[in-house]
Amino acid sequence: MLPFHELRGFLRDVRIAHHIRGRIRLKLDASAVSIDLPKLEARAFQSLLDRSPGVRSVQVNLLARSCTVHYDPEVIPERAWGDLLAGVASEAARILECILSDAYVEIGDAEL
To answer: What integer best gives the mean pLDDT of the chain?
Structure first.
């Protein structure tokens, strides 16, 4: 399993392609990585989102370098996604970061 800081670093290359309340499409910037998508990071990110409270479903399209996440905006604040990806230290971003971090620990514990 990738260390959380490496997975968190992967998010620097992710941008929001489209966002409506409860549904967000994330896209990996093509200029940020080679044509060979970092599949290990993408799979780890998908697994992390799949197990995160407030996330209802995740659909990953490796060919399009995108990921659509359906989430519960009562659990994950709508602005959390943009703030977290932009590095904004807001309460919303902190909530999402804690959700992801806790899910990461849970995945690690399950693999042991």
So the answer is: 82
